[in-house]
Amino acid sequence: MGPFSGWLPGGTALARSLSDAPVLLGGPHPTTLPEESIVKPFVDAVVRSEGEATWLELLSLFEQGRSISDLPIPSSESHIQNPIAGITYQTEDGTVASTPDRPPIPAGDLDAMPHPAWHLFKLERYTNLQPTVDQVDGLSLPILTSRGCPYRCTYCSQIGPRRWRARSADSVLAEWRWLVQEQGAAEIGVLDDSFNIDRKRVLDICQRLVDESLNHVPWIMINGIRANLADEEVLGAMKRAGCIRAAFGVESGNQAILDSVVDKQLTLDQVRGAFKAAQTVGMETIGFFIIGLPGETEETMDDTIRFACELDPVVANFSIATPFPGTQMYEMVKAQGDMLAETWDNFVFFEGKARFEMPGLPAELVERKWKEAYRRFYLRPKRVARTLMRKETWLRLPRTARMAWRTVVE
Ligand code: B12
Question: What CA–CA distance (Å, rounded) separates 67 from 372?
Fold first, then answer.
């Protein structure tokens, strides 16, 4: 069992026990670690990178009454070519084989993709994208208007090409209209890695949301948008189109760390400019920050905490640096430090534990600064006063108290 397969045996054994259907995995983790994700005997195949076209081919294989293990073992010498690109699977004799990568879906073909089959989901369970700050009654649904990102941040796990591929404004509007008018969305979350790469496209989408009166349904950016490409005009257009909150990946308050460790291609002044522009147009903000990046010291982590307080977003999210396999940061840590996260389980959300140590960066320091970041950001008198005045604070008190207890005290 590979070191990053912690949650897989239990989950896949359960899937296998529920029916005779093939067990297939996909997504960022299996794409990065395909062979380790073939947990024998539970997992039949991993679909690497984008799943749509591969999935269709697999379904047609099953419809012919064939199974994955019937597929010929791909070999450069063999004249029989495996017809299904982009999979890693168990062959009949139990060995693990991989077919060649499948090329990414061309940008021009993204528009032809059908809308997600939301009718197959128990949609009533999908409410409130950001429950600690909003009180949304009704359905929250996501939309993906573009794929990928042209930037190369070292912590980012990308399963596609380092290229940005966008849907047209027409296609985005068609799905948005359908989400609001036919699916009854009360809130929409934009999932894009980088929504605002093409300024004209953003302005176009926003104008059309206004023109079609779709702007009464609030939407938020779940992932960060690029601060260097967010000015008053763009944020103002988003606000008029119904966007209530924009997230920004700030990562660090120390320019040297941002440049040499994260390769963020962003200056602290650009970040300040974006937050100021957001404030001017009345858009709420989320700031994503990372504590314990390779090469950090207590001082650089203090810079990040101070910068978060200076920017003062509605939500500040501090993550402990996590070097996911396949990222440049993973290679940095492997070369210069010790990985502490032994199983994939140790990478989970908000766990509060350092994932690695480096000379000068002990786990104890990172864990202490991470707690301190939350304490210093959320317990500022100005912040406490503002929080107390929000209605949602009182509605959500039991949940918030539980979270605070876990973060600050435990
Ligand atoms: C939305 C989101 C969240 C939301 C999740 C909300 C929800 N309930 O869905 C929130 C904010 C909670 C979140 C949290 C976290 N996230 Co997140 N998140 C995303 C984000 C922005 C979008 C995911 C998405 O829906 N994409 C759209 C779909 C269409 O793409 P997709 O999932 O990749 O699926 C395609 C293929 O992968 C494949 N596929 C996927 N599944 C399957 C299954 C099968 C059977 C098949 C055949 C194919 C297949 O086909 C799909 C179509 O092509 C991605 C980045 C991104 N743009 O993908 C990060 C991302 C998934 N998150 C990431 C991370 C690191 C986290 C956190 C650990 C952050 C943190 N430090 O706390 C937590 C973990 C939470 C948890 N407990 O699991 C990483 C994962 C890295 C990795 N190697 O696993 C990503 C990739 C960001 C990044 N670039 O680094 N996240």
Answer: 53
